[in-house]
Amino acid sequence: MFVIANFLFAMAIILDVVLTIYMWIIIARAILSWVVPFSRSHFAYALAHGLSRLTDPVLWRIQRLLPLRGMGIDISPIIAILIILFLKYFLVATLFDIARNL
């Protein structure tokens, strides 16, 4: 049983790290979306493009579900971060608890 417990513990840690990294990528994309229009740096454009490619699949689905295009501000990063936090506090915590109780 300790093998399964260690496996679940490792999966919980990896999932926690991946979700945290993805959350910071979404935050960086949101900040760069404000900065890039005023920048002339090719690095900033390349970084914004790369971050957009990483986050667009998730944010596009949220934007499709919540058609709030006329608001003038995109709240899909906030919703994505809330979903990530829910997954971290529910799913990761549940995996830790299951691993601890095995």
Task: Provide the descriptors you would attach to this structure in a database record.
102 residues; mainly alpha; 82% helix
Walk me through this protein's architecture:
It is a single chain. This protein is mainly alpha-helical. It has one domain (2-88). The protein has three helices and no strands. The chain has helices spanning 2-35, 42-65, 76-101. α1 (2-35) crosses α2 and α1 packs antiparallel against α3. The longest helix has 34 residues, at 2-35. The radius of gyration is 17 Å and the shape is elongated.
Shape: elongated
Distance between the termini: 6 Å
Quaternary assembly = single chain
Count of all domains: 1
* Beta-strand residue percentage: under 5%
Number of strands: 0
Q: What count of helical segments does DSSP give?
A: 3
Estimated radius of gyration: 17 Å
Instruction: List the helices and strands in order.
Output: HHH
Main sheet record: none
Strand-pairing-aware structural class: mainly alpha
Average pLDDT value? 91
Low-pLDDT parts are: none
Instruction: Bin the helical content.
Output: over 70%
Sequence-ordered SSE layout with sheet pairings:
Elements: H1 2-35, H2 42-65, H3 76-101
Helix pairs in contact: 1-2, 1-3, 2-3
What's the quick description here?
The protein has helices spanning 2-35, 42-65, 76-101. It is an all-alpha fold. Helix 1 packs across helix 2 (42-65).
